[in-house]
Amino acid sequence: MNKPYKKINYDRKPIKTRWYLLPLIWIIVTFMLFKVKHKIIKENFKKIKGGCLIVSNHMCFTDFKLLEKFLFPRRSYYISSIDEFVYKEWIMRRLGCIPKKVHFRDMKMIRTIVKLLIKGNIVSLYPEATYSFAGVENMIDQSLGKLAKMANVPVIVINQKGNYLYSPRWNTKPVNKEVPLIFTAKMVVNKDEVLKLSADEIQNRINEYFPYDEYKYQRENNIKIHSSNKACHIDRILYKCPNCLCEKCIEGINNEIHCTNCNATYEIDELSILKNKNGETKFDSISSWFTFQRKFVQEDINNNKYDIEFPVKISKLLNCKLGFDHNFAKGIARQNNDGIKVYGKINETNEDFYFEYNQKLNSTIHVTYDVKGCKDSGVEVHDENNSYLLYPLDKTPVIKIRFAVEEAHIKYQKNLKK
Predict the structure, then answer these.
(1) pTM for this one?
(2) Quick count: other Cβ atoms within 10 Å of Cβ 31?
(3) ∠ CA 297-298-301 to the nearest 5 degrees?
């Protein structure tokens, strides 16, 4: 797009949720949760006084509704993905949301959060920075303890259960209304303890209470899901057949996961238990299958054998008003232990395009589905000036790309400690 446009202002002063929006938020949240079975539990505290760092797991949009109900009438600042500001920046900022490039180190953002906390505000973070892919926790930033220590504020960890089952990341419609949601807020570090504990000790308390397993929660509570489309779009997270090890051959049809290469067909029952109708059942849960795929990537990374190349369509985020230019460029992406390098041509000008994502410095990469104006699966990358979406054109699994970024970063960090 050659026409000049105004870029996103990440340095704009955060806006506290407008007081006149509070009654409206309460009405909307109450209405949206009216027919949803849910329960809010508090542990180790009765009321939040002064500044507080809230850390929550993240599984679907309902997380935010429950958090708002829990906090009312207190107001919070939210650190939000810049994607969420597209076409709705005005309202997002007035809801107390602060835009951030996902999985991009931003020292200005850290200073902003600390200042808000010191001034007695609540700041809410979703440290996974993405919805759960398979009902278990994603990697979280290990500097949350340092953040709390810098501001000397208590820490509340919110562990939500049922939200993923209610609306899975890979298939958000329709929601499964029979799933009860449990929202447990636990003060893991109080105002006195934050002064005495080290940053590592605070982080350890966060890590201890944060993990979750949605399928374990479902089976222990005998929660039956009667949907006839439990496998729809499941190929977004499951890409490797556990029976024949073929990649890019998984498809979800109704309640069945099918491999087009070996004809293995796994049926998902009402308790989300998997059973192979045509042979040996390698895994009985989606989360176990999801984790199994990672081990192959981990082995290739550790043995310096991981090296893939794939064609990509490249989208560029212009600003919140214009959204994404989904016809920005096309090119070739190559990913190995050193990172992701993208070579291509800008469609409008035919100029060369180059982008490098160093996965040694980035602990993970953001995976996107159904971004405004594009239904494809992609990964989101950023530099100081721009944000891009990379969409594989040959069905290269975006989850595999994410696994590789994470495993390369883990290996890099281990080598630094030697």
Answers:
(1) 0.92
(2) 10
(3) 85
Closest CA to 57 of 217, 184, 154, 219: 184
Residue 408 contacts by C-beta under 8 Å, 6 or more apart in sequence?
Answer: 301, 306, 337, 338, 339, 359, 360
Q: Are 15 and 94 in contact (CB under 8 A)?
A: yes
Does the pLDDT of residue 1 top 60, yes or no?
A: no
Residue whose entry in the numeric block shows the structure tokens 């489309």: 229
The whole-angstrom distance between residue 355's C-alpha and the CA centroid of its chain comes to 23
> How are strands ordered across the β-sheet holding 387-392?
352-357, 339-346, 323-336, 307-319, 387-392, 377-382, 366-369
How far is the C-alpha of 268 from the C-alpha of 256, rounded, in Å?
6
Q: In this structure, are residues 140 and 128 in contact, taking their beta carbons and an 8 Å threshold? A: yes
Compute the distance between CA of residue 2 and CA of residue 49 in angstroms, rounded to an integer.
50
CA distance 88 to 321: 8
Residues in Cβ contact with 283 at an 8 Å cutoff, skipping those fewer than 6 apart:
242, 274, 289, 292
- Order of strands across the sheet with 250-253? 250-253, 256-259, 265-268, 274-276
Give the pLDDT confidence of 229-281 residue by residue, as tens digits.
899 999 999 999 999 999 999 999 999 999 999 999 999 999 999 999 989 99
Phi-psi region of 63 (alpha: psi -120 to 50; beta: other; left: phi over 0): alpha
Residue 394's identity, in one-letter code, is D
